[in-house]
Amino acid sequence: MSSNVTVVKRAPDSGSVRAFLHKLAVGDAVAHLITLVCAASIVLITSVLVYQLWTNSALSRHAFGWHFWTTQAWDPVFEHFGALAFLYGTVVTSVIALALAVPVGVGAAIFLAELAPPQVSDMLAFVIDLLAAVPSVIYGLLGIFVVVPFVRVYLAPFLESALGSLPLFKGPSYGVGILTASLVLTIMIVPFIISVSREVLLAVPREQREAALALGATRWESTIKVVVPYARAGIAGSIFLAMARALGETMAVTMVIGNEPRIAASLLAPGYTIASVIANEFTEATGSMYLSALIELGLVLFLVTFILNGLARLLILATEQRGGSHA
Amino acid sequence: MSLRTAWRKSVNVIMLSLTGACTLVIISVLFFILGYLIWNGGKDISWDFFTKLPAPVGEPGGGMANAIVGSGKLLLLAMLFGVPIGVLGGVYLAEFGGRTFGFLVRYTTDLLNGVPSIIIGIFAYTVVVVPMHRFSALAGGFALGVMTVPITVRSTEQFLRAVPNPLREGALALGASKWKSIVTVILPAASSGIITGIMLALARVAGETAPLLFTAFNNHYWSSGWNQPVSSLPVMIYLYALSGYRDWHEQAWAAGLVLLAFVLVVNVSTRLVLSRRTSVPR
User: Fold this and answer.
1) Model-level pTM?
2) A1, closest residue in chain B (CA to CA)
3) How far is it, in rounded angstroms, from Cα A35 to Cα A120?
4) A279–B123 C-beta distance less than 8 A
5) What are phi and psi of B75, to 5 degrees?
6) Which ipTM score applies to this complex?
7) In B92-209, which residue ranges form alpha helices assigned H by DSSP?
8) Option in B20, B179, B242 nearest A27 (CB)
9) pLDDT digit string (tens) for B233-256?
10) pLDDT in tens, B189-229
11) Interface test with B, best of A5, A112, A251 (most B CBs within 10 A)
12) What is the pLDDT of residues B60-74, one digit of tens each?
């Protein structure tokens, strides 16, 4: 391809105009332009998305300012909007889900990358990718009819009798609630942690493992003291990626969280998340202030996931390049 | 064997078995989901499900023919919007892309891929539903189309880059212009990969519910046109699962099984196509 460029540069005398006309005549310039427009439209779509979220939330941003995020009242009738309860529900469900998903996910990734024979590992990784492909509404369906009864009949009574003295597990449980949503989210984000962590673990150069084993380390010691630290930035990236998924997950959470905009001390109590309130109330939002408040919720959700995804990509890229340059 | 060595060895065995147990738990979740859906949805699925309109509450029977056709229409619109931008954008990145702008496009694409689907719904609402003053199949198709773009772009770029350079050089040496070599040599060489990328993107958006709630909305009857609200399988699953009627729950299970079957069949078959392709020696 570089030879092609030199030919064009050496085109006789009148130089770049002639070369341009030549390119136009053979159609390369046109093809370049068309594909460029398509590529640019991706950037355009993303910019318009940000612009729309920003301008359509202006009403609410100006009316409430930062109070929007520090007050709890969500009253469409009197147009008082405070998003603290949604913020709380979103953060708590995601944090619990991560706390449960990270050990399991990283553990499974270690198994797939370090222990399982390559063919078995590839096959299991494919099955796990399938788990990530299951639509979230199906997780919601199973959530309603399997996880909710399970929590109501077994898990909540057990937690209450064992740890009921803590405010975290006090009070009656209807099955739906923060804890149930966290459990469903856990299952949904584990595949992302596994598949990305497995990739970064596989990108760790062989010599690192061999050196550790040669020094007398057991398999587990070489994994936990050498391989995992080597890949830690990439694993952190996979966790950020999973966190962004958890924060933005809508349907499955909406179906099992109970949809009550209040902050309760108990994890067994119903709650609400940012994504759920948008899903539930967007079509019913009659006043422009109501709509604007919902779009402001969307704007913040977008910004947070945007930042988390950006960080995750950089971390994963850094780890894989580091591994690649040593190989 | 010293005590310390014995301790280290047992830690080794215990921790490694724990990682195996983690994997086992996750894999069994998938089989549980599959099994439960087949068991629950299988008994409610019938010929009527594919051919009849939803029955009113209390009447047994009925189906989701309108939702199945609606999902098809939405996917068609998504493809019409997403595939040209996705494939041509991918061609730009692989064949023309400059360093800085290429990086910008790639990064934006990855970020767009991570945007929660409900936000895409708000976006489609503001740019399609508001100007048209109504919920419509077009708005839903647009929302899903935007979501197919990132996967299509990245997979197209990846498979074009996998085409060996001698093919490009051969075409150019024969006197073909660059676009002609792309259209007649490079794209055909990568076509099976590109098509699987498109299929995967469609399988992903086929299950999306959140962006459809306030774009395509829902419709209990046949949709009378592209600018009318339209029903879709994921939205029907959502509404029926949350309803209080036993008949509707059964319909939701049946719809869930159909949707999951579609998604899994596309994923598994694309995987088979790709592995066969890559195992063929060049």
Assistant:
1) 0.89
2) B169
3) 40
4) no
5) -70, -35
6) 0.90
7) 99-114, 117-124, 130-132, 137-161, 165-173, 178-181, 187-206
8) B179
9) 999 999 999 988 888 898 899 999
10) 999 889 999 999 999 999 999 999 988 888 888 877 888 88
11) A251
12) 777 888 999 999 999
